[in-house]
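Now for a specimen:

…
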Amino acid sequence: DLSEEADLALKVTKNRSLMAHFQKAIAQSNLGDIEASKKSFQQVLNLTEKNENVAARASNYSIMAALYDRQLQRTDSAQYYLEKAKALDPGNIDYVIQEGSMYAGHKNYTKAFDSYDAATLINPNSQMLYEERANTRLKMMSEKYGTSKAQELRTKMSQSEKTALCEDLNKALSLGLQDMNKDMFAALV
């Protein structure tokens, strides 16, 4: 049991293990004990605030943002922690990409691409950025046209949609993405 393992780790570390509090919070959340999960998350926050390593603190906030978004469906809290991560480590492209992916997960594609565009200002040659852009654009087109089949998308997409998708795919591929399906899709479209 994950919660028991976390309790043991907390006992050994005298309640100073950030990861153990985090694992316990996740286990409690998965078991439906939201109040206990919130208390464990508060311990994660307390330990995070005390951490003098700014990059590690930003990373912890980013992890908390992902957890609040994916497992707890609390987008407002997720955005709050992601903003804290971005403020602490403004040159870290990962947090800006994470923000875009979070928006994409909620089908807010305008904000997703605004975040991705902001990420290009940090590092215009990030393979991960262009892979996320391409994946988001494919998801958006698939939802818009009700198909994920390349041939059908090709016939339904406008020329500007094809151009935008191909630019993202080709940039990701040129930066080292190795995905034969995406390579073939870019060539087909």
About this structure: The chain has a mean pLDDT of 84. Residues 4 and 24 are 8 Å apart (CA to CA). The two ends are 49 Å apart (CA to CA). DSSP finds eleven helices and no strands in the chain.
